[in-house]
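[job 4471] stage=fold_predict status=RUNNING
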Amino acid sequence: MINVLEIDGYRAVIEFDSEIEMFRGEFIDLNGGADFYATDVKGLWEEARKSLAVFLDMCREDGVEPHRQFTGQIAIQLPPRLYADIAAAARVQGQTLDEWVERALDRQVAVQR
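[job 4471] inference complete, writing structure tokens
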């Protein structure tokens, strides 16, 4: 199960590290690394806020955009049979391949929100 913590519009993925018996969080939308650790949920929230504040302060000082920028392009390789099935499904639904894939991915991501 993936756990996501959101603070001020920034998302962090939370995992439990059994080796150190602590929760570990890592912000995923940032233009750099910002992680944090805690032994309980309350501490996790506190450490996340501190880590994010430090990261954002450093970005302001350095004149760096804190949000990671994405191009919107994705390149993947698929088995030929799957590619053919996707192309056929898109055609049947009157969509381009890009439109069909975008909608399929959007539906899958909506399940995770």
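[job 4471] summary: The chain has two domains: 3-62, 80-112.
[job 4471] exit 0
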